[in-house]
Design goal:
heterodimer, A: mainly alpha, 70% helix, globular, B: mainly alpha, 5 helices, 1% strand
Chain lengths: 158, 189
């Protein structure tokens, strides 16, 4: 039953995982490891989802936490035991054949880790309130940061 | 370029298709991952037991060292408990309401771990010395007490250096990165 829920949750929200992995990983191996780690975290926590927030917001919270924590884990010594074999995730990166999208990802990856999360949430139409809730900062802080970040991205891509 | 154009580019992500996942394999991998974590914990336990075994020959020369075993057990139990907390914190990030809360808990824990570990550096020599003084006060020691104390303090110095290196190599980097992420969250442009 949980397997069915999990499968359904992942299938209908796979875009969230994909985008955050693209934003936070530097190569295909890291991408796959991070994707797998996100799925493991979702698998573990799905039974505890109470429906207090939207499923997508809840998933963002878990995936951003995982992605940002994953960065710290890959440095020097991994705390969690890495998986020996990765599950093959055959993504078709059709969308990234688009030059603009590639440049946008590059521009986002040049930002600081926290800023990457804020930009991703903004581009996915998350409100300031949801972003603030996910990251644990004030709405004002989100708004101030976003104003600067949007400007930076526009300048970079123009 | 404007904000709407940025969002339009981002929407191209939706064109990405995905093949079906092997969820049964994922479940197995998750279980394997947890099993590996348990194996790592068992390895830590093995090291502790090995240290106990290495400690035993000393008992033949100083039988009263047997009385120190509860202190040793207590210290190693504490060490394993701390290690367990780190593993749990890293693997249960989904339990936190937001990212900042997770970072704050992690920083508090790591800072506390540093402090507690260093506190034991200062506490252990005093405990050992006190123990030794109490023991020799009942009878004339057959061995040279200064040699014994020197051995204890040498072992203490070696373990201090080892633990400091362990803190530096394993825990300093996560602590620094946690601080950096918190700084990024709170900074205002």
């Amino acid at each position: 039953m949980i397997t069915d829920d999990f499968e359904q949750t992942i299938k209908s929200n796979v875009g969230i995982l994909h985008k955050l992995c693209r934003v936070y990983s530097n190569n295909a191996t890291e991408y796959e490891e991070m994707f797998q780690e996100m799925m493991i975290q979702i698998w573990r926590s799905l039974p505890n989802f109470r429906g207090d927030s939207q499923l997508s917001t809840w998933l963002y919270r878990i995936c951003i936490n995982t992605a940002l924590n994953f960065r710290t884990k890959t440095n020097k010594f991994k705390k969690l035991v890495p998986l020996e074999e990765n599950i093959t995730i055959n993504f078709d990166f059709e969308g990234e054949k688009d030059e603009h999208l590639k440049k946008l990802y590059e521009a986002i990856r040049d930002l600081k880790p926290i800023d990457r999360a804020i930009v991703s949430l903004y581009l996915d139409e998350k409100s300031y309130e949801e972003t603030a809730q996910i990251l644990g900062i004030s709405k004002t802080n989100v708004a101030t940061k976003l104003m600067r970040l949007k400007q930076k991205l526009i300048e970079r891509l123009s | 370029m404007n904000e709407e154009e940025l969002k339009a580019i981002w929407k191209k992500n939706e064109n990405i298709s995905h093949n079906s996942f092997d969820f049964e394999a994922l479940k197995q991998k998750t279980l394997q991952s947890q099993e590996k974590l348990r194996r790592k914990m068992r390895w830590e336990l093995f090291v502790v037991i090995l240290l106990y075994i290495l400690f035993f020959p000393a008992i033949f020369f100083f039988p009263k060292l047997l009385l120190l075993i509860p202190i040793y057990i207590g210290l190693w139990y504490w060490y394993l408990w701390e290690i367990g907390r780190i593993y749990r914190l890293e693997s249960d990030i989904q339990n936190f309401d937001n990212f900042k809360e997770f970072l704050l808990v992690k920083r508090k824990f790591l800072r506390g771990y540093f402090k507690r570990t260093r506190l034991t550096y200062f506490a252990i020599p005093f405990i050992f010395t006190l123990f030794f003084v109490v023991m020799i006060s009942f009878e004339e020691p057959s061995k040279n007490p200064f040699g014994f104390l020197l051995a204890l303090f040498s072992a203490q110095a070696i373990s201090m250096i080892g633990l400091e290196m362990n803190l530096w190599l394993v825990y300093r980097s996560p602590l620094d990165e946690t601080e950096e992420l918190l700084r990024q969250l709170d900074e205002t442009p």
